[in-house]
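Reopening this one. Same input as before:
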Amino acid sequence: MFWTNYHQHCYFCDGTDEPSLYVESAIEKGVKSFGFSSHAPMSLPVPWAVKAERFNEYLQTITGLKERYKNQLPIYVGLEIDYIPGITSPAREDFKVLDYNIGSVHYGHKHPDEGWYWEIDGTQQAYDRGIAEIYGGDVKKAVGSYFALQQEMLTLAPPQVLGHMDKVKMNNQNRHFTEDESWYKQLVFDTLEVAAASGVIIEVNTRGVYKKKTQYPYPSPFVLQRIKELNIPIVLNSDAHHPREITAYFTEAAQMLQELGFKELQILTPQGWQPRPFTAEGIIEQ
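Same output, byte for byte:
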């Protein structure tokens, strides 16, 4: 049995440590396929993305680790790439050098007068301010914009992996809406139809749970049930920002996935993404 993880952030973006410490931790935790996905550079002045002037250093560093650990652990070079119309997307030419990518929406629309964006997963205060000042307090309009941007990304610039697709729930904490409301479910299900048509892999991301931000991983169980019905492939990731988080909540998440009827997880190989059977103890060797 083994685990894989393709979503982690090191000190090139908002992670805590140098990349080699993540690799050493992954080896200790029985990981057999591993990828770095630092937040991609972009023109917005955000503190959590790779600086443009360090992008080549990032690529060279991870490529060096691939060679250094080639007899112990397959390592892949990736990025988590935001979709912000007119700013950045997974389709950018300078990102074509990657082994894989994760496409995520972290921002909603821009304030029409002041130029700042609605932050989906920043502070709760920023989340609430965006709903109030950009969307006039209309939470359906705000959440609708989040899923509309995902659908646009999946249609115009589809990534290989869709990151934390329902992260809009994190700062909500059942204050503005609940996940069982029909309008919310319809937005999710509409997005999944687009995802199924795009051929994307959907990430099951455990970070919300082990950071005590959400009750369930991203996406929630009712979303995962629909993903299974649509036969959309899934990959299990932890969105680690510290080496100790690389397999955090994997056993519990894998058990949940089994109970929902999932039989396979995607792993990245030199031949591309491939399905593998799994149990709560890990992915089964073949």
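So the earlier flakiness isn't reproducible anymore. For the record, The CA atoms of residues 16 and 242 lie 6 Å apart.
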